[in-house]
Amino acid sequence: VIEQGLPDHTVLTTCAYCGVGCSFRAEMKGDTLVRMVPAKDGKANRGHSCVKGRFALGYATHPDRILDPMIRETVSDPWRKVGWDEALSFAAARLTRIRSAYGAQSLGGLTSSRCTNEETYLVQKLVRAVFATNNVDTCARVCHAPTGYGLKTAFGTSAGTQDFDSIEHADVVMLIGANPTDGHPVFASRLKRRLRQGATLIVIDPRRIDMVRSPHIDAAYHLALRPGTNVAVLTSLAHVLVTEDLTDEAFVRTRCDGESYADWAAFVREPRHAPEATAQLTGVPAADLRAAARAYANGNAAIYYGLGVTEHAQGSTTVMAIANLAMATGNIGRPGVGVNPLRGQNNVQGSCDMGSFPHELPGYRHVRDRTARETYERLWQVSLSDEPGLRLPNMLDAARAGEFKGIYIQGEDILQSDPDTSHVAEALAAMECVIVHDLFLNETANYAHVFLPGASFLEKDGTFTNAERRINRIRRAMAPKGGLADWQATQALANAMGAGWAYTHPSEIMDEIAASVPAFAGVSYDLLEREGSLQWPCNADAPLGTPVMHEAGFAGGSGHFMVTEYIPTDERTGPRFPLLLTTGRVLTQYNVGAQTRRTANTAWHDEDVLEIHPHDAEQRGISEGMLVNLASRSGETTLRATLSDRIAPGVVYTTFHHPQTQTNVVTTDNSDWATNCPEYKVTAVQVRPANGP
Ligand code: SF4
């Protein structure tokens, strides 16, 4: 896509990769992208970018892109290219037949954190208003669903509390289960700058990530915990805060629910939570736990966290444990503090905001909330169910049981990204209508009956909401290569099933969102054009948005403390599977690699490799670069080993960017107790030389 030549115009847009949401000027020559230049006035990136946003654009014109709709009767038939009308009629007829034969509960849809707010809003509207069910879910299910649940429980709002500028005011930064150098590089640069100015860094991560030690960076504390023990570590830190009188009593008294605080304080005070009592369980020396807790209570302290927090059986509990620490020390409601989830994909925040969860309408209002339901019944002229729908794992279970028959999947490759691949494949194979709407024939499309060509972010208008709740515009720089932008295709499918939607531009969808979601009431494309971007809540109380939340009070009234009892995961090591596997990502690749593997970035990282400690490698006769067999109770795969002391003995680590590895063949179907977010971060495994005994 990047051509030589002088540009003749530029289009201001937003990166389609991670949740930092960097602004770029796409320099165009006619309909061709010449280069991407980070925008100096971009509020999230201030002229900076990483290798993905700046250079990994080749996928947009890659020959693998499918530009024609395709259909087939059964998945063993060859694909047949057809026009949009025929594909949509075929899809609509199948979905309608399934709904008549098995009922609306046999249908569902998946939205994507890679798509715009407007597209996401339309997909959930399609499912609720046209399919007539609440069976809608989002890929945030497998990453930050616990953030939504945990932060809403504690603060009353399912979002990070700060803007990125806030880091400039932090004295202490606690980084938990996040590797921003690889996952959120532009934020990592801002963090490093603050650390060079003297802020103290506490890293809680099983792996010695770059932030622990790299040129000019030396974390004060690295709590290299055993995977799966986040809650025990955080509760132990809380024990030190409470027993050493390091809490902010005035904040707790004036801003938080006193009863919940009293229960929580009595719980964390128990001697069993003292660092000396938890050190053996967590693998973190007691002295480090005590010192880190004291450091956190010293000045403006900000917490940033990632999927190492959420992708656990206790993901939601961990988010609540983090919120407890921030409230107990008064680190909420001003610059330099707060609780900040680093969102993996560009629009994780937005996809959750837009009502993609089966129990929540747009704006996080429960489907049983009569006022909210009536708002949409009036707007959409349908009656809506007040029964929460199925989450994705439940849709897949229902499909295996023969009760769920048809699914529309926009911008997600569940066969590669979701845990326990063989179960996902079995469920997809059992369905009568699988519609994949994507740029590429992904792994999930092997089980599809309809393929609808998606549009890249360069081919459509809309908005993404980044990790700091910032609503950024993307602008169409070229025509959709497949003929329709994704919002147009969703509208056409709805209309093929009898709806009468008539949006002519995504701005009209945003107007509908603003008319129905209180936190978006002031948002419009005109205001976005004037201001560049807006952080929600943006309404009569905050006409230009809200950089820092909970300044005067929590959205839920009072901050709510939750007792966070540590419960060991069911995934245990033993003689057959003695090591713990944890997973992450590399700088140059992005998630399942559908985009970055089709760019020059693959030259830097063309396979997933397994990091194994030299001690564990020696015991198994494994040397650098050797092919090894990685096996768990769920399945096995083969990949190359690299010896590394970044991880402790007993722990191994890999990424999941390449389909030939199929890392998720190995991961289990354990999940977070509250949200079903998969426990990707803890799998008991065995590692052996691939050609060994
Ligand atoms: Fe894109 Fe994230 Fe890199 Fe910014 S940091 S350029 S948003 S991938």
TrEMBL record:
Instruction: Please tell me whether the keyword Cell division is annotated for this protein.
Output: no
Recorded GO terms, molecular function? Answer: 2 iron, 2 sulfur cluster binding; 4 iron, 4 sulfur cluster binding; formate dehydrogenase (NAD+) activity; metal ion binding; molybdopterin cofactor binding; NADH dehydrogenase activity
Q: Name one GO cellular component term.
A: oxidoreductase complex
Which Gene Ontology biological process is one annotated for this entry? respiratory electron transport chain
Q: Which UniProt keywords apply?
A: 2Fe-2S, 4Fe-4S, Iron, Iron-sulfur, Metal-binding, Oxidoreductase, Repeat
Species in which this protein is naturally found: Rhodovulum imhoffii
Shown segment, full-protein numbering: 233 to 925 of 947
Provide the transmembrane region boundaries.
Answer: none
The family annotation for this protein states: In the C-terminal section; belongs to the prokaryotic molybdopterin-containing oxidoreductase family. Belongs to the complex I 75 kDa subunit family.
Q: Which protein is depicted?
A: Formate dehydrogenase alpha subunit
Q: Which residues form the 4Fe-4S Mo/W bis-MGD-type domain?
A: 8-64
Instruction: Please verify whether the record's keywords include ATP-binding.
Output: no
